[in-house]
Specification:
TIM Barrel; binds NADP nicotinamide-adenine-dinucleotide phosphate; two-stranded antiparallel sheet; 12 strands; 16% strand; alpha/beta; single chain
Length: 328
């Protein structure tokens, strides 16, 4: 294992985490109900091995990825690769129930009921072939959630040794505040969509009081998380590749920011992937980008983000280009 990536302690925990995390959403193939294939398994094993070799020790899952197949492929690969459980950090998410489950006609919905959270965590443990999750996140806010039930589920999962730490995903500051009023365990992560093209959390503080950008809907979430030592994780950290190779019909600001990324990457002798991710890493919150590529070369290119630090000027130039306007 190369293990050369920088690490830091995840606040409020004893977990030493790599600066970049690997997101396992695409492991295990499509969520079409078809069983895992030998090819799915081989691909999953290769990309996990590559991530480990690059020093990534943090793996993000959700029970719904591939309808459970991503967790299954990961659990099998870890066993085959002989990775010691304590060497890696496994995070999964729950609370989304897919359409037509358990019965045809059911809509996609969120479910933070005690029974559902307990069942979902148990099922993830089984698929991942592990006795504990380092982190369990509530995937997306459930409008019908009863905080007391979430608290009861977290207590049970923690006391039974099934989950070490808890967090949330796609939550606003106020939503986190509500859980914190009821839940005994600290909330240590908020995982949100965050990249140069979609940076509500950052824009919220920067463009406050500068109509028409005054309201982003992020409602102080970034600062709230910082004040409360809740790590921000960025999903879609390279905007699904749009920051690297924008589609031919991409809008002007996407093309402009991708071109600037390419220019700066060239000047800094690094990759475009690294440059796009370095923009997130430069933020002092800090922000942990989650990498979603399943391509070994792309993964290697992304990991070079750990080697560069953007200047203040580069950071703001990228922001300005992505916004299509200077900061006020
Ligand atoms: N909490 C949530 O609600 C939520 C939602 C979505 C995702 N996530 C998590 O975040 C992780 C990352 O999300 P994401 O997949 O949307 O993020 P991403 O890393 O921005 O996008 C990855 C996608 O971009 C493509 N891509 C094209 N060119 C690329 C390049 N040069 N470098 C890297 N990727 C390139 C990849 O294809 P190739 O494989 O061909 O490189 C892949 O399909 C997921 O795996 C999951 O763990 C969380």
């Amino acid at each position: 294992m190369l293990s050369r990536m920088q690490t830091y302690t995840l606040p409020q925990t004893d977990l030493k985490i790599s600066r970049l995390a690997y997101g396992c959403m695409k492991l295990g193939g499509e969520g079409d109900g078809a069983p895992l294939t030998a090819l799915d398994r081989a691909r999953a094993r290769r990309i996990i091995e590559c991530a480990l070799e690059r020093g990534i020790n943090f793996f993000d899952h959700a029970d719904v990825y591939g309808r459970g197949k991503a967790e299954t492929a990961f659990g099998e690969a870890l066993r085959e690769l002989g990775v010691a459980r304590e060497k890696i950090i496994i995070q999964t998410k729950c609370g989304i129930r897919l359409a037509d489950t358990p019965a045809p006609g059911a809509p996609t919905r969120f479910d933070f009921s005690y029974e559902y959270l307990m069942d979902a965590a148990q099922a993830s443990l089984k698929r991942l072939q592990t006795e504990y999750l380092d982190l369990l996140l509530l995937h997306r806010p459930d409008a019908l959630a009863q905080p007391e039930e979430v608290a009861r589920a977290f207590d049970a999962l923690h006391q039974r040794g099934m989950v070490r730490y808890f967090g949330v995903s796609n939550h606003t500051a106020a939503q986190i505040q509500l859980w914190r009023k009821f839940v005994a365990q600290p909330l240590v992560v908020n995982q949100v969509e965050l990249n140069l093209l979609r940076a509500d959390l950052i824009d919220d503080g920067l463009f406050f009081n500068t109509a028409p950008r005054a309201y982003t809907g992020a409602a102080d979430t970034l600062d709230y998380c910082r004040v409360n030592a809740i790590l921000i994780q960025a999903w879609a950290s390279v905007a699904g590749g749009a920051l690297i190779n924008p589609a031919p019909n991409a809008d002007a600001r996407t093309r402009a920011v991708a071109a600037l990324i390419a220019d700066i990457a060239h000047a800094r002798n690094t990759t475009r992937e690294a440059l796009a991710l370095a923009w997130l890493l430069r933020h002092p919150a800090p922000i942990q980008p989650i990498l979603g590529t399943t391509n070994l070369e792309h993964l290697a290119a992304c990991c070079r983000a750990d080697d560069i630090t953007l200047t203040r000027e580069e950071w703001y130039l990228l922001l300005q280009t992505a916004r299509g306007a200077p900061v006020p």
